[in-house]
Design a protein that fits this description.
By secondary structure, this protein is an alpha+beta fold. It has a single domain, classed as Gcn5-related N-acetyltransferase (GNAT) (Aminopeptidase). The strands form 2 sheets. It has a 3-stranded antiparallel beta sheet with strand order 1-2-3, with helices on one face. Strand 1 and strand 2 form a beta hairpin. The chain binds coenzyme A (COA). Coenzyme A binds next to helix 1, strand 3, helix 3 and helix 4.
Amino acid sequence: MMSDARVARYLALGGKVPSRETMWRTFATMLGHWAIRGYGFFAVVEKASGKWVGRVGPWMPEGWPGLECGWGVDATHWGKGYAPEAAIAAIKWIFQTNPALTRIISLIDPANENSQAVARKIGETRSGEKFQHEVAGALDIWAAPRDEWLKRFG
Ligand SMILES: CC(C)(COP(=O)(O)OP(=O)(O)OC[C@H]1O[C@@H](n2cnc3c(N)ncnc32)[C@H](O)[C@@H]1OP(=O)(O)O)[C@@H](O)C(=O)NCCC(=O)NCCS
């Protein structure tokens, strides 16, 4: 997934296709996030073929402005609605397992139209707040309040 420049543009630190060595460290970070926080990205698997198509789920490293639902789909599978389908399932799980969580957020580059389309489909709106990412720069905070979200998707 990350060997495609269209995906790396928004998911790799620095926006360039990362080396296998860098991705190995990224995988270790993702597994470490599960170990430290008790939650992290889920693998998204296409039911019909059993193929891995992406990763979607909760993400909150140190310094994050809230509990995020993030998404990334291999470019060969874009446009099939997999990111929104998986994000809705993941956010249900996040709210169930975090009863005190009042909102879910997603950090999105203002130029990333595909990701903004996903955010809209899953009931998030642009909050007007910004998060200054140390590498990616200013990102928009999209968000959905717990109660409203659960009424629509729960
Ligand atoms: C954002 C992303 C996860 C969307 O995944 P998806 O499973 O394709 O989601 P959808 O099928 O709902 O498509 C979302 C939008 O992508 C665009 N899109 C869909 N297929 C596309 C294609 N083949 N080529 C270019 N854009 C496409 C459309 O604008 C679509 O919105 P629409 O359905 O309102 O027309 C995917 O594009 C991706 O992995 N992008 C790179 C990583 C990234 O940006 N992650 C999010 C960081 S905040």
